[in-house]
Amino acid sequence: MKRVVSIFICVIIILTGCSSPSYQTAEPIENPTKTEPVLKEPESKPLAPPDHKPDEPVFEWHSAEVTEENVRLALENNVGAAMAIPIKDETFRRFTSSEDLEGQYIELTINPGTYWDEKDFVKKAGGSLIAYSKILFENPDVYEVSLDVKIDNVGGGENDGVYISWRRDQAENVDYDSVLDNMFGDFTIPYTLARKYRIDSSIYDKLGDIAIPEDHNL
User: Fold this and answer.
1) What is the value of pTM for the model shown?
2) 54 phi and psi, to 5 degrees?
3) For the chain, how far is it from start to end, CA to CA, in angstroms?
4) Contacts of 174 (CB under 8 A, 6+ apart)
5) For 27, which DSSP code?
6) 103 forms bridges with which residues in the sheet?
7) Distance CA 82, CA 184 (A)
8) Residues with Cβ < 8 Å from 217, sequence gap 6 or more?
9) How far is CA 174 from CA 25, 45, 75, 179, 182, in A?
10) What is the pLDDT of residues 154-174, one digit of tens each?
11) Segment 22-61, tens digit of pLDDT
12) What is the CA radius of gyration of the chain?
């Protein structure tokens, strides 16, 4: 009897297991990936080309109009001779010009300011004629270059010092640089080459024994 009961219980257990609902393992649920919003970069506009300023024309004295502005521009920063008076606001006084069939006549009034002595003053005046003419005669319209070199008056104002002038035809065969170099030994060379010159007597009398007269006019 016990054996029958045991068998019966086993059958019930087996039947019970078969009738129990089977649980299937659920597929794993994937977590949705969080996507960041894609920001669209603004379209870059092509860079505007930089403003192109037209190149300033290069100043060329040899073809420039003969005016005060152009003459000063030609001489400023270009007169480096030790024997010459530099052209700048402190030394420049006046520009005058006239014209005839031969060309332009230029006269510059200048004042060196300080100088060592009368000989140095006369030397700088003559050297300036040579150094300025080396540049100014590059312009074919310039026919004559003259310098009126003033001297400071101790009481104020300015006095006449040296007037010196020459023309293109006199300078044609002159080696400007050699003249300026030789002036270290003989400062009178420009006066022997000049068409005309005048040295104020108050200066000339202090030059001592020199080989040129006080004035000369061809």
Assistant:
1) 0.74
2) -60, 140
3) 172
4) 130, 193
5) P
6) 100
7) 9
8) 195, 196, 198
9) 117, 64, 19, 8, 13
10) 888 999 999 999 999 999 999
11) 444 455 555 555 555 555 666 666 666 666 666 778 899 9
12) 50
